[in-house]
Amino acid sequence: MIFQDGAGYPFLRKSEGGHVEVTTEELFFDLIYVFLVTQISHGLLHHLNGTGFLQTLVLWFAAWLGWQYTGWVTNWFDPRSPSLRCVLFGSMALALLCGAAAPEAFGVRGLDFAICYAVMQAGRSAFVVWRLPPGHDLLPNYRRILGWNLISGACWIIGALYPSDMRLMFWCMAVLCEYVSPMFGFWLPFLGRSHTSDWTISGSHLVERCQLFVMVALGEAIMASGLSMARAENWNTPVLLSFCVSFLCTIAMWWLYFGTSIKKAEHAITRSSDPGRMGAYVHYIHAILIAGIIVTAVGMDILLENPFESLSRPALAVMTLGPLLYLFGSCLYGRIVTSCWSIWHIAGICAFAALSSLGLSLSPLAICAIGTVILLLVAGGAEWNSQN
What we know:
Blueprint: E1 4-5, E2 9-10, H1 24-45, H2 50-76, H3 82-101, H4 110-131, H5 139-160, H6 164-180, H7 203-231, H8 237-258, H9 262-271, H10 275-305, H11 313-338, H12 343-358, H13 364-386
Antiparallel strand pairs: 1-2
């Protein structure tokens, strides 16, 4: 069933040969995440401890889930329709406020962050439930999604009323509600569960949207290098070497993602007997993969500020955990889209595990240089393996 919205645009998207194009509205929406990712990474940079890691993780999953649920909406519904365009713009405003509140989300801005996030998530789903006609196949699915958004939103707002420790516990529950509920079909009493086999999605659109978010995250790594050079008083040899290493590390991460498994991702979703489940797996894995890029960008900040100073354990953890997470996510992604484990990725993960155990005896420049070489070798080896 196709029904019109406003200036003749169909509310439901129509694919041509299984392809759904990414619209300028979606690209405009992604601009907000340039700011949001920067806020989250800088928050971790200034709170390098166990609590800081957990708080950053919760905020990152909130950011990712906000983007992910929007991505599924624009896969099914046309963002050029006036009503959905307004919802996207409203979501952008709320996401921008979440980004502004993020540095103090576990402080004085907790309730501001929680309300903006809960309204964004539940409001988007409520709009779809209101807009879909009775009897449409996606209506029961979005009723269940709205139910989980409301449960999650309650956890966000209740948590914001407590001090930071209890807030972290409630917000972890909120994140789990939205991240885990798709795994069992958004089951709710009286509403039943959804089945991924009923989720008719465009694999090309989903993969392209994920690619664009990876580019946003890599942009944060590029910005870390550029801003550090702008702040440096003298472009001496250590500063230039650190810049070269950080820039090559970003290139290696780009190569690893866009030069290997990404080429086969669209075909894997399209050919799958259950494209909805495959699409959900792709989104789950990207949460890990992009988290790795964000943490790596924080490690680059540490390198560019102090290339030869001794490292604390939290700083070492950031500098090795980021690339390790990225490799782990990339390895899982390759396994999903090719049905094979990459020996190059596994070897790289082992190499970073070894580097983390020896890192306190090395300078930040040495750690990042070794890590960059590992990433370049894995990227080159994986691409060579995919071509042979």
